[in-house]
Amino acid sequence: MNTYVVGNLKMHLETCRLRDEYVKRLHELSQSLTSEQRSALFVCPPHVHLEKFVTKLPALTIGAQDAHHELRGAHTGSTSSNALKSLGVGCVIIGHSERRGAGESLETVCKKVQTALLSGLHVIVCVGFLSEGQDEESIIKSDVAAILEAITDVVPAHKHENLSFAYEPVWAIGTGKTPTTHHIQTIVLVIRKEVIRVLGDASKSLPVLYGGSVTTENAQQIVTESTADGVLVGGASLDPANLVQMIKMFNK
Ligand code: 13P
């Protein structure tokens, strides 16, 4: 199985010049990747840049950072999963802690995952949004169960394979701090167990990624020792060379 690298560019690249420089550099660097390596590299720019990324980087999977839980309707400022799919976007990040911290509930996350999967997008759903003192393992277990139970009856089984989880402990995001690889492995296993319990053995290979202060220095150790299926990268993804270096390191 491939080991994935997902770059979350957040609200960065805030001018057209920065966007164009990034796209040009990533395009150049991605020429040195094999087709297998390219297929495991996902890049998620701000919505306003999606069309440019999709057009200029056709060999990579381009992702959005959110989508509305309804497919259509009067929702000012929101984006429909159907619109993303029709633009050529391949995946969407749902439930990032920077959105959960701004008031997005678990119930909304569940609905967004349903809608995006039904649209045919690959979904990377983030878990690990916790307040201090909460029991991490049990909260993550119940969040993962709620997300999976929300899709079982609504999303046809053949689309379940388009789901991935990302364990992103909120305190590790943008701080330079990471959990021990043993701890990441514990949570990765909690998530994998819930996937098998709710969706059954057929879904046992759903990817489980880790995100939070991943760099080219720590990425290999995190993936090897934690058994995560890849990484979700924020700050380090602002240099496309880092994404390309990681994907080469993981998929030799
Ligand atoms: P950093 O890699 O900047 O810690 O961000 C992680 C993240 O939020 C990816 O979604």
Explain this structure.
There is one protein chain. The protein is of the alpha/beta class and 252 residues long. It has a single domain, classed as Aldolase class I (TIM Barrel). Helix content is 42%, strand content 14%. It has an eight-stranded parallel beta barrel with strand order 1-2-3-4-5-6-7-8, surrounded by seven helices. Strand 5 (122-127), helix 7 and strand 6 (163-167) form a beta-alpha-beta unit. Helix 7 runs parallel beside helix 8. The longest helix is centred in the C-terminal third of the chain and has 19 residues, at 181-199. The mean pLDDT is 96. Residues 8, 96, 168, 173-174, 211-214, 232-236 line the site of 1,3-dihydroxyacetonephosphate.
Features:
8-stranded parallel barrel; alpha/beta; 252 residues; TIM Barrel; globular; binds 1,3-dihydroxyacetonephosphate
Number of strands: 8
What's the helical proportion of residues?
Answer: 40-55%
**Associated small molecules:** 1,3-dihydroxyacetonephosphate
CATH homologous superfamily annotation: Aldolase class I
The CATH topology is given as: TIM Barrel
**H and E string:** EHHEHEHEHHEHEHEHEH
* Highest-level CATH class: Alpha Beta
Tell me the number of structural domains: 1
- Main beta-sheet strand count, sense and barrel state: 8 strands, parallel, barrel
CATH-scheme architecture: Alpha-Beta Barrel
Short description:
By secondary structure, the protein is of the alpha/beta class. The protein has one domain: TIM Barrel (Alpha-Beta Barrel). Helix content is 42%, strand content 14%.
